[in-house]
Each structure stands twice: as C-alpha cells, then as structure tokens.
Amino acid sequence: MHIRPAQMDDRSSIWSIIGPTIRAGETYALDRNMSEADALSYWLGDDRETFVAELDGEIVGTYYIRTNQRGGGKHICNCGYMTSAIATGRGVARAMCQHSLVHARQHGYRGMQFNFVVSTNTRAVSLWESLGFEIVGRLPEAFQHPTLGYVDALVMFQPL
Fold this sequence. Notes:
The radius of gyration is 15 Å and the shape is globular. The chain has helices spanning 11-24, 36-43, 92-106, 122-130; strands at residues 2-5, 48-55, 58-67, 76-83, 111-118, 134-145, 149-159. A 7-stranded mixed sheet has the order 1-2-3-4-5-7-6. It is of the alpha+beta class. The protein has one domain (2-159): 3-Layer(aba) Sandwich (Aminopeptidase), CATH 3.40.630.30.
C-alpha cells in the first residue's frame, strides 16, 4: 500500500469514496445531500492536508489531517478517514491512521483528537482503540443515525 498527498486529478477517485459514505449518513455528521463540489471542497479544504491510499495502483482510501483548534489548541490535530467498500477489512484504514500518526508527530503535534466518532461505528472504535486511542468523552444522542435514531458520539484522543 502506498499513501501519498492528494492531487487535483484525484478528485473523482476521492469522490467515489467519500460520496457513498456521506450519502449513507451513518458515520459522519455531514449533510447526506451535500453536492459533490461541496463535499470535495470540505475534504480538500485549505485548512487541511489530504492524502490518498493506493492499493495496486487504485485509490482505495483517503484521509485528511488538520489543526483541531486555533491559538492555544493548535498543538492538537484532528483527522477524518474514509475507505472504499472494496477496501473494507484490508488494513487500509489502519495504514492511513498509522501514517497520520507519524505525519502528526513529524509536524510537531502533541496529540490527535477525534471529535465525533459515531458510537455505532464499532469497527472504527475498535480500530482506533487498537492503535492507542482512548475514549475521553461521550456525547449522549449527539448523532441522528438514519436507521438507529439518536446514538452517542465519542471523543477519542491519543497523546503524541
């Protein structure tokens, strides 16, 4: 697997990954009906670095890393990760998270915080915990899941 910075010509591949995840509305607090242009603008925003994961020459995952807060909180970063359906269970999310942890340390961040992990996303919660993240907060019924109704969101953190 190869992880590299996203380029402008990766936009259609990135959309093919983030579009279905956004439309499903099960793991990200984003408008399920947001346009492709708005979704790409969000994912590739000027306030973040975006990467893609390639497997056998095909983009199968993407993540971004950004400063979580400004001013006195700028030493903590935040990331978002999405993988294509064909990448499920193939270690892509793990590899992207490991890459982001190394990248964050190299850029002087002192911690990584996931602000809003939907509690029903148990695969992600288990993966993040296996990589050293701890649940440091729970937001009761903070996310409206399309089929499960209101569910909790978790705040997860790892010192770097």
